[in-house]
Write a structure and sequence with these properties.
The complex is a heterodimer of chains A (about 130) and B (about 210). Chain A is of the alpha/beta class and about 130 residues long. Chain A has one domain: CBS-domain. In chain A, about 40% of the residues lie in helices and about 25% in strands. Chain A contains 5 helices and 8 strands, in the order ββαββααββαββα. In chain A, strands 2-3-4-5 form a 4-stranded mixed sheet. Chain B has 2 domains: about 60 residues, no CATH class; about 100 residues. Chain B has 11 helices and 1 strand, in the order H-H-H-H-H-H-H-H-H-H-H-E. In chain B, helix 2 crosses helix 3 and helix 6 runs antiparallel to helix 7. The longest helix of chain B is centred in the middle third of the chain and has 30 residues. Classes of the chains: A alpha/beta (about 130), B mainly alpha (about 210). Chains A and B meet through strand 1, strand 6, helix 4, strand 8 and helix 5 of A and helix 10, helix 11 and strand 1 of B. Strand 1 of chain A pairs parallel with strand 1 of chain B.
């Protein structure tokens, strides 16, 4: 079976300001940041679309707005003991191409649609 | 190969395909579907594989045994025999065709009605929705075809169960000898816990442009 390497994800805290994470997203060329609390528990996700819709368009002050005010809570994630099938179900349901993987509610990383397909195709040919 | 041998081969294949006898199912799987797994083997191993296949077919037949026999089969055979007679008589008599098609309709209806409980039991056990859909879709076609239609329809349920029996036996056989089909391997990969698939370390997509990052 072909192993899967999770994608290392950048995280931020719910107390960070939007201005600070926007800078981070620009520097790292990423469009989403997972939000974790102090214990590493996944509590939300914030995307560039959230920033555009909730900060830029309503012309809110990004230096005063916190991530917790903008982020999407209750992120769908898959436990490391579950199968890739569960990831595909979430991706198909939410029409996304990534799925966060957690262990004891703590974020381990992200698995992409591409990772899953590659792994399954290689497994089927071996 | 002489013409006689060729024709004999075709007849054998057709008999194996149509027959619902376990020994014919084993022969069909061994000589056709799983041919490559019986070639170039020592005699002992070949016999071992054959007995394994026989056991799997036998167990699957046992599983669907209640669906293959009973009143359903009797009704099925008798109604379709009546439908064949009805079709032949309609061709040689001068009576209006509508009368015969109405009789056929009743016969097909009765057959289907008696098959429904068996179909329900069968679906519960097998989840063979494809086979069931094919069984239902072929009914109008068999109803329209004169003479040959009722003949085909007569064993349609049995053939559906037989296909399932062979499918299950084939999969178990392949699984036992470690030769999974690509489809089965892919399905297994998808059902494996992520924990077992994880490689150490991470990949990063920092070098990708924002529109391509995960």
């Amino acid at each position: 079976m072909e192993g899967i390497k999770l994608i290392k994800t950048d995280v931020c805290s719910p107390e960070n300001t939007i201005a600070s994470i926007a800078k981070k997203m620009q520097q790292k060329k990423i469009r989403r940041l997972f939000v974790t609390d102090k214990s590493g528990k996944l509590v939300g996700v914030i995307t560039t679309v959230d920033i555009v819709n909730k900060i830029v368009v309503p012309q809110k002050d990004s230096k005063k707005t916190l991530v917790s005010q903008v982020m999407t809570k209750n992120v769908h994630s898959v436990n490391v003991d579950e199968s890739l099938d569960e990831c595909l179900k979430i991706m198909n349901k939410l029409k996304t191409f990534v799925c966060p993987i957690v262990k004891n509610e703590k974020l381990l990383g992200v698995v992409s649609y591409q990772n899953i397909i590659a792994s399954v195709v290689i497994a089927s040919r071996n | 190969m002489s013409l006689e041998e060729k024709v004999g081969g075709w007849i054998d294949r057709a008999r194996q395909y149509i027959s619902t006898k376990p020994e014919d199912m084993v022969a069909y799987l061994r000589d056709r579907k799983l041919k490559t797994y019986f070639q170039n083997l020592p005699e002992e191993e070949r016999r071992e594989r054959e007995s394994l296949l026989t056991r799997y077919v036998g167990e699957s037949v046992q599983k669907y045994d209640s669906d293959l026999h009973g009143t359903r089969k009797l009704i099925s055979k008798s109604t379709m025999a009546a439908a064949v007679v009805n079709d032949i008589y309609s061709l040689i008599s001068k009576a209006p065709f509508a009368n015969f098609s109405a009789v056929s309709y009743v016969l097909f209806g009765a057959k289907t009605l008696f098959e429904l409980p068996a179909m329900r039991r069968y679906l519960k056990k097998s989840h063979d929705w494809y086979g069931a859909a094919l069984w239902a879709l072929m009914k109008p076609v068999n109803y329209i075809l004169p003479i040959i239609g009722p003949m085909i329809e007569s064993g349609s349920f049995d053939r559906m169960v037989k296909r399932r029996v062979m499918y299950e036996a084939q999969n178990r056989f392949l699984e036992h000898i470690g030769a999974y089909s690509e489809k089965v391997k892919a399905r297994k990969a998808l059902k494996t816990p992520i924990r077992e698939l994880l490689s150490p370390g991470f990949t990063s997509n920092e070098e990708l442009p924002a529109y391509a990052s995960a």
